[in-house]
Amino acid sequence: MTGLRSWLLRRLLLGAGQTAAVVLLVFALTEALPGDAAVALAGDQPDPARIAALREAMHLDRPAAERFGAWAAGLLHGDLGSSLVSGRPVSSYLADGFGPTLLLAALTLLLLVPLAGGLGVLAARYEGRLVDRLISAVTLAVYAVPEFAFGVLLVTVVALHLGWLPPTAVGYGGELLAHPAVLVLPVLVLLSRPVCSLARLVRAGMIDALAAPYIAHARRYGIPGVRIRYAHALPNALAPAAQQLARTVDWLLCGVIVVEALFVIPGLGTVLMNAVAERDVPVLQGLAVVFAGTAVVLNLAADTVVFRCTPRAGVVA
Amino acid sequence: MGEAHAVTANTENETARIQDLRVEVGGRALVDGVSLRLAPGRITALIGASGSGKTTTGRALLHEYPPGATVTGEVRVPDALVGYVPQDPATVLNPARPVAALLQDIARTQVRHLPRRARRPAVRERVLRALARARIPDGDTLLHRYPHQLSGGQQQRMVLAQALLTGAGTLVADEPTTGQDALTKQQIARQLAAVARQGIAVLLLSHDLEVVRSLADEVHVLCAGRIVESGPPEQLWRSPRHSWTRALLTRTEPAEPAEPAGIAAPPRDTVLQVRGLTARHGTSPVLHVPELRLPPGCSAVMGRSGSGKTTLARCLAGLHRTYDGQVLLDGAVLPRSLRDRTREQLAAVQYVFQDARAAFDAHRPVLDQVARSAIRLRHRPRPQATADAERTLRSLGLAGDLVRRTPAELSGGELQRAALARALLARPRVLICDEITSGLDTVTRRSLLTHLDGLLRADPDLSLVLITHGRDTAALATDLAVLDAGRLVEQGPADRLRTAPRHALTAALLQTAPDPRSLPDGPVPHR
């Protein structure tokens, strides 16, 4: 197991480097955007003198390298800095946005894993028969629909025409959990495509595994079918699905901007949108750190699962 | 055929019986009127060339047939339990689970009658007992390993333990010794003898005649799906009645050392030379060869599985590049890696792999793939290259329409000859053959060896390096090198090593026949 441990350590160091690179890139890209926080704050009738004053107040007149250096030094002490626009600490922005995002992600995951796994195993069990063709056709069709289109469709039909559920989370503020009806449509939209891609991956892996000689061998010795499917075949089908699941979780935690905007949920995606609009560089950088860190940790977790499921493959740093 | 081959007169004393079995796929009979009886404690062997219907007959006991097969006749297994040890045990071990997983599940199906609390210790006890019966000494620690962490021998014993754990009265062992070295073969033979002593009927499917002769109580010779002859081994070997049996039993290796294959009185200079070679996998050294000279003609590198034979061959061919030292061809140093070798150097050293099927692209005709080496390595235009390829293939007995098909339609022996042809089209100076005969049955192997001998005679400039653990393959060689655990233990002219080996392993590899009852050539005693 020392091999695994040193591999983990190497991967974590590499991940820290990747996070730093992402942060540097985000900083460079926001610098490259036309306009800055001062211009955004100055409003519709920009007065050059006012912009200059704002710039000086925000220290935007200092060279980019110096500003980045000061911010990076703060980061090493755990200080993400504070917003250029409101002066609030960046960590409070992140904390506010993280609650709703985490809630949505957790709910989606809770439903996603059993649903996708079950559908995949079911389709593989009846490979080529009606059940399989039905599952395969429906998952392919749903996967082809972009989430904004699916979201708009759901809002129009279920919320506006039928009036069964509220169309957006406007007015519910931070206490989404107290109003579960608000969450149904967003979670449905978030589920739609990941369920399809995961179910198809599990199905493909299960079909391969069920056709393998070691499964025939287990059947030969009278092992019950359920046990064969879930205890002997499924572990072989998990490796590709685990990678895809990590990508999905990453997307759920860092990038459901469209869904948050559509349903007006005050999560991290919304914080990101506002920060870009206001050229609020410290908030953007704080988000970049969080997103990059999440991506590194999740991929590492997925690779560890894959390592467990395909012990033969060994580890590649 | 269809006549019953009575093994024992006593009907009660049998664990399984096959009566007039006929298995037909697409109008072609794979097995045609085979009858067998398996009795407890007896080893029944089915011998015959690849494709003679051995595996189909063995699998019939498990009620498993090829897809689309029409089956007539009767297969009766009173206790419905048959254990199976396939040719490659690794394929039936789940790569994603520790080996304990299936063993425990098998045991769990047997303890359902016990109260819930007693089940877990009962499962454990049964698993450990099965491991002991399969002669796995430190089974407790091996249980938590994944299949790839076990050696080939341990894998085979684990699969055997599964069979014993089911309580099966019958065991089908499919080519258990194929591709193993002489010493491992002995261990497997002893293992099977021990299983039979536990009162289990063993059906041994094999083309390994030495093992069959020393182990079996009853031998059936299969030819094209029919049993052409049956009887106790000593009778069969002494007076084979059927011409096919005679062809099969003809000793492969000549009684006296082979006439020097190929060139008459070759000058004792060196084609390939290895100097101070230490090869590593990762950082750990796996092979150390201070000095090795391979003369023109045919040399063989021998050793047990895992002794470093293939690593040496891969160093010579430029496929393994983490080594110190030098490999010289005709006195000139060869670059370590294939990538650094010139086209001429690439063409000069050609490699034929053990698994011919894996060495061909499954989707292109064999002829195109064979012609490719002449196009790539000798810049022959395509029409000439194809003509060359056809000529070479024909000289190896592969003619006409066959070579225009995809690899799937060729047999293992045919593909191996096609792989030889592909290597020969590069006009190599040295042809390295890595265990190219070990997966083949006796008849096919002998024909391939005849072809190799013919190559040497036809082209005095060609040298062969045979990587092998089989002495019948090594019989072709005029010069031998023996490796053990990554060290070169002996090297010299084949005659000298055969008559006066200095190292025990050389003697073992060149002379051992499996003799589980330590009675090498005597009559087989009855139990």
From TrEMBL, chain A:
Q: Which residues form the ABC transmembrane type-1 domain?
A: 98-302
What Gene3D superfamilies has UniProt attached to this entry? Answer: MetI-like
Q: Which family does it belong to?
A: Belongs to the binding-protein-dependent transport system permease family.
Q: Enumerate the subcellular locations listed in this protein's record, separating them with semicolons.
A: Cell membrane
InterPro entries per UniProt: MetI-like, MetI-like_sf
A single GO cellular-component term from the record reads: plasma membrane
Q: Which UniProt keywords apply?
A: Cell membrane, Membrane, Transmembrane, Transmembrane helix, Transport
Q: A Pfam family in this protein? A: BPD_transp_1
Q: Which PROSITE patterns does this entry report, sorted A to Z?
A: ABC_TM1 (PS50928)
Q: Which GO terms describe its biological process?
A: transmembrane transport
Membrane-spanning parts: 102-122, 134-164, 176-196, 251-277, 283-302
Its name, as the record gives it, is ABC transporter permease
* Organism listed in the record: Streptomyces sioyaensis
Q: What highest taxon heads this organism's lineage?
A: Bacteria
What membrane topology was assigned to this protein in its record? Multi-pass membrane protein
